[in-house]
Specification:
The chain has helices at about 1-20, 30-50, 55, 75-80, 85-100, 100-110, 120-140, 145-179. By secondary structure, it is mostly helical. The relative contact order is 0.12.
């Protein structure tokens, strides 16, 4: 992940410089830092989900044989393993599929104001994991419909966190202005 972040960062800085210059956008350091962290987050997710794994590149992974198209099958399997010797693997996969995607639900409505409504974020929350899983299918990686469920849930959790923070900040700003 770090290598991809280092490799793509110069491209990001050049693109942002050109956008700011061409659109005459006033420079805001915190705003740009927020955009950059979102960019780095996207690069990390991309590197872990879209780029072919070494197993695929070496021909060790049978994507069709290890794919799951049955709703809740993998989730049930992991939940059944939580008390046994595979506890760590099961927990890592369940929690990891959620934790990794929560930031999308927070970043997207904070950066793209037109995507702050619940229904729009629901569409985005479904579109992102569907795009990832569909792309994985075409590059030879295994896919899992349960990843779509967990990732979508995670993005919606992130959106709920965004909404709570937004409401709290608006409340505090309003309260401070009223005093």
């Amino acid at each position: 992940m770090l290598i991809y972040c280092i490799l793509f960062s110069p491209l990001y800085f050049i693109a942002r410089f050109l956008i700011i210059k061409n659109k005459n956008i006033p420079f805001n350091g915190l705003h740009e830092l927020w955009y950059y962290t979102f960019f780095l987050y996207c690069v990390c997710i991309f590197s872990q989900t879209i780029l072919p794994s070494k197993e695929v590149l070496l021909g060790y992974e049978d994507a069709v044989g290890s794919s799951n198209f049955i709703l809740f099958e993998t989730i049930r399997l992991y939940l059944s393993k939580l008390g046994g010797p595979m506890h760590t693997v099961a927990l890592y996969n369940l929690v990891g599929n959620i934790v990794l995607f929560v930031p999308f639900g927070f970043y997207i409505p904070s950066i793209f104001k037109q995507l702050q409504s619940f229904w729009k974020i629901c569409l985005v929350a479904l579109a992102i994991p569907l795009f990832i899983e569909t792309t994985q299918y075409f590059i030879g990686r295994s896919i899992d419909v349960d990843d779509v469920i967990l990732n979508t849930l995670a993005i919606l959790i992130g959106y709920c966190l965004f909404y709570v923070v937004k409401r709290l900040l608006n409340f505090h700003i309003y309260k401070a202005e009223k005093s």
